[in-house]
């Protein structure tokens, strides 16, 4: 029974009590306010210049592109105005050599080319029309600025945004390295290449994936009220929420529409409490942080998101393997194994390699409720090269994984609770009994079992929320956030432009033309989410 006791000793270190949740919520609120007042704080609280969220009645045809880590996604989205949409998308891998190109132009020219290919393939009619009409125009450039398509650009790298379609690249991450682009406006870089190809496309909005999630959820969630928060729990974690302009004390450099009195704020909450005032810290959190290229930073994210949970589990598991009091993942004698054989770990096991354990195994560990844990044991064998793991071993692994997953969910609840409290909607009689809508996206929240249930459990324990408040909070998956959200922000941006009348005419005829566009075999066609 030593294994049970030693496992429990690890599990309890991942406890995060109701009292600690409350303390962390208070600290989150404090750090949020600090970030609204000045730059250089833990929560960056970046203004996005988006001042309204959609209500589902929006209509039109928009384009969206998404430059993530590995792929470039081009889509067109037809918003039907009733909370539904039709999405057509192409996905192309980014050639490795372009990730480290000499000039920004090489990468962005490739992106523009993909946009042209997409238009030719899926919007051939409009594209041909545009090309035919263009030379007859008498503009000095030899063609008319006829931007049939407004496009939202989801760019998942750190940018300093200074307007709805303006933002300079701070630094590359995720294996990209094109020094020429750093400090430049990424929207302008893309527009330049689009214009070289004379495409009828205007880069209308620069989009962060959290803001896209917020917009997508607002559009498709039932009811008239928009969502208050869009949150990502995937490789990383972050959230964007709707804040009152009066609370935003930092100076704003760009133009924005102040008629709504609100602005969407990108919190960059991955770096909440880097100073560790309230975050729980185990020996394995410390070991993991040391292994990363950015020790001391993104401390909240390192306890929550998919990129890190598996590594915490690996480090805790290794400690149990080395513990002389137990025989974990090894048997002295076949009699101690219910499969009547002996367990051993291959020397080349990925358990011995940094980042060798993918977080998705935690989902399998949580789902497997069978009396012999056969699915989990098979996976331990096939992915971690643990041969013939005994039932007791698999159970210990399952318990540690569950403790790490549960702590992550309770920590996630801290940000959600703080933002719900910050909106003041729970205590405002004007919003009596209305649901408070939250859009979420990312593999962790989508696939890890009971992740949302564990978030709700923690929310109920928060002072100022409680049973009643938690019932009003409605957390829902925002499907296709990066495409639909970017399209919606392009729509908001179009509304901010001066000559909107002409533009809306263009968009409406565009939408009518596109309604019968069919997807070809190499594209994803996603009719109508929700
Ligand atoms: P991205 O963040 O790049 O948009 P995802 O939302 O798919 O992508 O998140 C990927 C992360 O989620 C990876 O760290 C991966 O380990 C983790 N992950 C993938 N599948 C699961 C799963 N079933 N359960 C828990 N985590 C998962
Ligand atoms: Mg994502």
UniProtKB/TrEMBL annotation:
Keyword set includes S-adenosyl-L-methionine: no
Alphabetical UniProt keywords: ATP-binding, Glycolysis, Kinase, Nucleotide-binding, Transferase
Domain Hexokinase N-terminal: 8-219
EC code(s) of this entry: 2.7.1.-
UniProt-listed GO biological process terms: glucose metabolic process; glycolytic process; intracellular glucose homeostasis
UniProt pathway annotation: Carbohydrate degradation; glycolysis; D-glyceraldehyde 3-phosphate and glycerone phosphate from D-glucose: step 1/4
Transmembrane segments: none
Domain Hexokinase C-terminal stretches: 229-492
Keyword DNA-binding appears in the UniProt entry: no
UniProt xrefs under Pfam families: Hexokinase_1, Hexokinase_2
Enzyme category, top tier: transferase
Gene Ontology CC annotation, any one: cytosol
Gene3D superfamilies, per the entry: 3.30.420.40, 3.40.367.20
Gene Ontology molecular functions: ATP binding; D-glucose binding; fructokinase activity; glucokinase activity
Sequence similarity: Belongs to the hexokinase family.
Protein name: Phosphotransferase
